[in-house]
Amino acid sequence: MINKDLSVINLIATSLNRKDEKPNEDLAMEIIRSKRVDWIKELVENLENRDTNIQNDCIKVLYEIGEHGAAGLIAPYCSVFGDILQSKNNRLVWGAMTALDSIAMIAHKEIFGILPLVISTINKGSVITKDHGVGILAKLSSFSDYSNTVFPLLLEQLKTCPSKHLPMYAEKSMIAINSTNKDLFIKLIQARLPEMEKNSQRQRINKVVRSIEKKV
Questions:
Q1: In 49-61, which positions are buried (b, 16+ CB within 10 angstroms) versus exposed (e)?
Q2: What is the tens place of the pLDDT at every residue in 38-54?
């Protein structure tokens, strides 16, 4: 049972001397349930804590909130997550990208405003950073105001990503596909089919193609 009278920092894994993520995940669920915006504010403030373990726990709780259907609670801190993309703490960087991915449909205007930073972070980032970066590009591309700018950047990621990641990236990209760009998208992912090492990978790509051809 979470003590609601405590400072939120007393409730994260590090403060509880826990090495697993369960306390952080439970805390995120409690914040979603209770809408403790004061706790969210405290978590955001501690992203600059001198203890990197506290930083890491805080970003974990924040993106868990976003990924579990309460993106609106963390969306006001979009600019903070954007600034963190320049951090030297890789855990913070991919955590911030995860948070941005979770709020991209809400804070699309703000995220589009830092698009060059998002792209540079994708290009030099870890696997998780890239995965969520593609998710961001796909979501932004779903908006007509940004599609002409962002969709070519999404295609570039699909062209250059490791073949084992293409099925997932193609699935993430479906939100961005419309009658104007579907042929280009299908041509690109089908051209990479021979690179797939597993039949399951080819099946996933073919399923994406069938879904697009049926719906768009």
A1: eeeeebbbbbbbb
A2: 999 999 999 999 999 99
